[in-house]
Amino acid sequence: MAEIVSWREAEDEPVPISALNQYSYCPRRCALIHIEQLWDENRATAEGRIMHERVHEQDRESRGDVRIEYGLPLRSLRLGLIGKADVVEFHRVGKDFWQPFPVEYKRGKPKHDHCDLIQLCAQAICLEEMLSVSVPTGAIFYGRTRRRLDVTFDDALRLETEETADKARRLITAGVTPPPVYEKRCKSCSLIGECMPKTIEKKSSVKRYLTRMVDAP
Question: Which of 164, 194, 185 is nearest to 40 (CA)?
């Protein structure tokens, strides 16, 4: 496992929190967006963007012992992250303490990987650093199921989040887009047209084959 270098030591530009989700899903997708500045919407990404915009446009509100902030700016100097939380609920605990509880909105349904969990955990780490409090739990609201998935920020998830932040920063700083690896999830990626995983991967395989034939004794 590579040593995690703090952002202050690396002196790189801060990384958007959303890049951690993209890196966890696919490092090449992260590079296409943040290095090559490519983006293309499909129905899924458009619906997700509209959902986030609607959430961020709402005004702060109070519901008894819960205060709700929308579109709250976030940052972590330790990990070199910047971003914005869809929703942060502040639950009254005792007389003078309000417990932060981040809530991320996603249009689809819970995924098999940890990309959404990592994004939410990164928000919790930012809140902890900014407010000097512990943020042990949060939630992800999925539009397709219309349900919240409660998330506990345990040590394993925190370590995975910090490692992903480090890897995403190293990737973006290096400025080199990794080659494609075609997988089933590529079909639903909005950047499949720009990425061309099947075509490029096939060309790379042919090139490697020809190189081996030329170099063979």
Answer: 194
User: Residues 6 or more apart from 88 whose CB is under 8 A from it?
Assistant: 68, 69, 72, 100, 101, 102, 103, 127
Segment 73-83 shows an average pLDDT of 96
Beta strands in the chain (DSSP E): 15-16, 61-63, 66-76, 81-93, 97-106, 137-142, 147-152
How many Å apart are CA 157 and CA 100, to the nearest integer? Answer: 18
Give the predicted TM-score (pTM) of the model.
Answer: 0.79
pLDDT tens digits, residue range 139-170? 999 998 999 999 999 999 999 999 999 999 99
C-alpha 11/C-alpha 77 separation (Å) is: 11
Query: How far apart (Å, rounded) are the C-alpha atoms in residues 194 and 200?
Result: 11
